[in-house]
Write a structure and sequence with these properties.
Elements: E1 2-7, H1 10-16, H2 20-27, E2 32-37, E3 50-51, E4 61-62, H3 64-78, E5 83-93, H4 96-102, E6 107-112, H5 120-126, E7 129-132, H6 142-153, H7 162-165, E8 186-187, E9 190-191, H8 194-197, H9 201-219, H10 231-241
Parallel strand pairs: 1-2, 1-6, 5-6, 5-7
Antiparallel strand pairs: 3-4, 8-9
Bound molecules: S-adenosylmethionine.
The site of S-adenosylmethionine has 19 residues, from strand 5.
Function: Specifically methylates guanosine-37 in various tRNAs.
EC number: 2.1.1.228
Domain tRNA methyltransferase TRMD/TRM10-type: 1-224
Length: 250
């Protein structure tokens, strides 16, 4: 899978994405990540890419033309109109299912805004998806782009070892992951739950599923709306969250 990140701060993106699992996947040729500097497409002698917003207001706005020229150069290299994600607090909030859907693409372009954002007209022409990473405002789209690249990359076949990718993880089946423990058996007087030491796989699975339901009901009851729960699990969720199953939409 090939990621292209249009940004004014390419070194920030590249430094952050070339370590650990993602860095290894790049070295193995499973992924390519390229930061493209929008400033290379500045069209004045000062190399500036921002200007005051019409109508007044604080801050500067990234101008349409450098962003457009940067995009056109990419489109030409890719050889088709790519999917272009504009990172924006005004977009749809990023979630795991969205990551799964993006992971099916061959090419993905991210557009990072800075300052007060980007001239609306170029967004209208090139952006296919508006995505936010949460209800707060950051100084730029670089960190959100890195978060998305990370979440999408680990779903690309081969990036994680097969045994790891087959494991249950948070948000799968609309539940959070159960608690996990490693050696030593006792730490700070806390003992690993007995069932995990039993070697009894069916009991371990039952315990983990129950813990997932408890954890989700406690921390993210909103997720349970889409989870498929047995009648017994619904009762458990109700008990933990203090809400009636009906009120939770279950
Ligand atoms: N004036 C914009 C507004 O109120 O919607 C905010 C601009 S923000 C200071 C600058 C850039 O940071 C945005 O263009 C966007 O690329 C990025 N950004 C900020 N918060 C974000 C978020 N929660 N998710 C994704 N991108 C974000």
């Amino acid at each position: 899978m090939n990621f292209y990140i249009m940004t004014l701060f390419p070194e920030m993106v590249m430094d952050g994405l070339h370590t650990s699992i993602i860095g290894r996947a790049v070295n193995n040729g499973l992924l390519s990540i390229e930061a493209v500097n929008i400033r290379d497409y500045a069209f004045n002698k000062h190399n500036s890419v921002d200007d005051y917003p019409y109508g007044g207001g604080a801050g500067m706005l990234m101008q349409a033309e450098p962003v457009y020229q940067c995009y056109r150069a990419l489109e030409e290299r890719i050889g088709k109109k790519p999917r272009v994600v504009y990172l924006s607090p005004q977009g749809k909030t990023f979630h795991q299912e969205m990551a799964e859907e993006f992971a099916k693409e061959e090419e993905l372009v991210f557009l990072c805004g800075h300052y007060e954002g980007i001239d609306e007209r170029v967004l209208e022409e090139i952006v296919t998806d508006y995505v936010s990473i949460g209800d707060y405002v950051l100084t730029g789209g670089e960190l959100p782009a890195m978060i998305m690249v990370d979440a999408i990359s680990r779903l690309v076949p081969g990036v994680l070892h097969n045994d790891v990718s087959a494991e249950f993880e948070s948000f799968q089946d609309h539940l959070l992951e159960y608690p996990q423990y490693s050696r030593p058996e006792v730490w700070h007087d806390k003992r690993v739950p007995e069932v995990l030491m039993s070697g009894h796989h069916a009991n371990i699975e039952k315990w983990r599923r129950e813990q997932s339901v408890i954890r989700t009901a406690k921390n993210r009851p909103d997720l349970l709306l889409k989870a498929e729960l047995t009648e017994e699990e619904k009762r458990l969720a109700e008990e933990i969250s203090g809400c009636k199953a009906g009120d939770m939409g279950l």
